[in-house]
Write a structure and sequence with these properties.
three-stranded mixed β-sheet; about 40% helix; single chain; about 475 residues
Length: about 475
């Protein structure tokens, strides 16, 4: 009997009642990993020597899971899906992974991602493209592509991810699973390869909302190695609250089909499906209202994200020289060696981002681009904060439909749908807790909706998501290998 496609609670009960052993779970997960690797290329490393752990009262004890390859893992290859670190084996483990280890969870693989998290397609990792398990001609989105792909395929009930703009939540939507990033700092970022430090969040991908709460409970906690982390020891994320009369809002400018004159059939079906879910939520006790936000501010989301994230990435990754660690470049002096290492090691997408980051940080450009982007970021966050004074959460569709074809160039924004594609970045601007859950299918491909709430209001966000999840038939769904 298969167990890796079940929920964490179901697997834990089976372990406690001796219906399955830890060894059997590991073997099942490893077998599915090998099959999925052939089909979708989801993994950088498969840990065939994964060790058994004792089954305790911890819900995660003895349960296999996957680790996104930008989490440092001692003694295990950790590449960030980049040629610049293709042979890098760290000497320490990220705090979030140590916390999962303390809970008895068992890592069985490291998952492919867009290089250093800088992409939204799952196509830029140095080991190749990650294919969507629902349709291998489609992408998983990124950057947590391998994690979403594996969870959706029943390899294990959860995997870690990281989210700088939508890198947990959009792959979750494209793969028909749950993607959750908690409030900024709830999970320590120590040992997570930094992309943009003010935007980076650790998080999790699961197949239901309760599992997301269970895993985050184990990952979270204050950490002396991360000054942005905070004490959440008095918060139990699994203690959901009653959602009757909870007030939600959606944004007219994002959800109105009339704002998309060139809308595809998939986009029309996606927005129609979203509004159908809104009606169902109203029928089940939610108060949901339409609100309006200045279109100019919404249009500024994507460019604000690009400027800030590229500037922070340029600074964070200045240590990737090939001198301290990574494969040495060739040259007669250290400058030539660094140039050779970075030229050969980084993909063209990463190089473009570094060029943008360096340009906007130049003294003559800094105020016009970087500081202005920081000011616009504050204006956008303030608009969402105003909403949270009246509403418990903002609910919106994820993207412009199901997963895009792999020949679609997602690096070039479509002005017609850019706000629809990029609005998830607002939760990173403000550090807001944000979760994506599946809400339907279009052309046999999953689509999702997103729920975002105010900082430190994670239980409220999870409770709302859990209730909406219960109104639909997509909980715990998998696409078997």
């Amino acid at each position: 009997m298969a167990y890796m496609d079940k929920s964490i609670m179901e697997i834990h009960e089976a372990l406690k009642n001796n219906k399955v052993t830890v060894k059997e779970l590991i073997n099942e997960s490893l077998e599915k990993s090998q099959k999925l690797q052939t089909k979708c290329n989801a993994f950088v490393t498969i840990l065939d020597d994964a060790k058994e752990r004792e089954v305790t009262d911890s819900l995660l004890s003895g349960i296999p899971y996957g680790i996104k390859d930008n989490y440092s893992t001692k003694g295990i290859l950790s590449t960030g899906s980049s040629n610049t670190l293709k042979n890098y084996v760290p000497f320490f483990t990220a705090t979030a992974i140590l916390n999962l280890e303390a809970s008895g969870a068992i890592p069985v693989n490291k998952t492919v991602m867009d290089e250093f998290g800088m992409g939204g397609t799952g196509t830029t990792g140095h080991t190749g493209i990650v294919k969507n398990p629902w349709d291998t001609t489609r992408m998983c989105a990124g950057s947590s592509a391998g994690s979403a792909c594996a969870v959706a395929s029943g390899v294990y009930p959860f995997a870690t991810g990281s989210d700088t703009g939508d890198s947990i939540r959009k792959p979750a939507a494209y793969c028909g699973v749950v993607g959750y990033k908690p409030t900024y700092g709830m999970i320590s970022r120590y040992g997570l390869f930094p992309f943009a430090s003010s935007l980076d969040h650790c998080g999790v991908i699961t197949r239901n909302v309760m599992d997301a709460a269970i895993v985050t409970n184990s990952m979270k906690g204050i950490d002396e190695n991360d000054m942005t982390s905070w004490d959440s020891s008095n918060i139990d994320l699994t203690k959901f609250v009653d959602t009757k009369n909870k007030k939600l809002c959606y944004i007219k400018e994002i959800c109105d089909i009339n704002n998309y004159p060139n809308a595809s059939n998939e986009l029309k079906a996606h927005l129609n499906n979203f509004m159908h879910v809104i009606d169902k939520c109203r029928d089940n006790g939610f108060i949901i209202e339409e609100v309006s936000i200045n279109q100019k501010l919404l249009n500024a989301i994507a460019s604000t994200y690009v400027v800030i994230s590229c500037a922070e990435a340029t600074s964070n990754m200045s240590n990737l020289t090939g001198i301290i660690f990574g494969p040495r470049g060739e040259g007669n002096n250290y400058i030539e060696m660094m140039k050779d290492y970075r030229t050969k090691g980084f993909s063209s997408l990463i190089k473009r981002r570094f060029v943008i980051g360096s340009y906007v940080l130049q003294a003559e450009n800094k105020d016009r681009y970087f500081y202005n982007s920081c000011r616009v970021r504050r204006l956008i966050v303030d608009e969402w904060k105003k909403l949270f004074k009246t509403y418990d959460a903002v609910i919106l569709p994820v993207g412009s439909g199901p997963a895009k074809k792999l020949d679609f160039n997602d690096d070039t924004l479509d002005n017609n749908t850019s706000v629809l594609e990029e609005h998830l970045q607002v939760a990173n601007f403000g550090g807001f807790p944000s979760i994506t859950i599946p809400d339907g299918f279009i052309n046999d491909l999953p689509v999702g909706l997103n729920i975002t709430g105010n900082c430190y209001d994670d239980i409220n966000v999870l409770s709302i998501a859990n209730k909406i999840e219960s109104l639909m038939p997509y909980k715990n769904q998998t696409k078997e290998v």
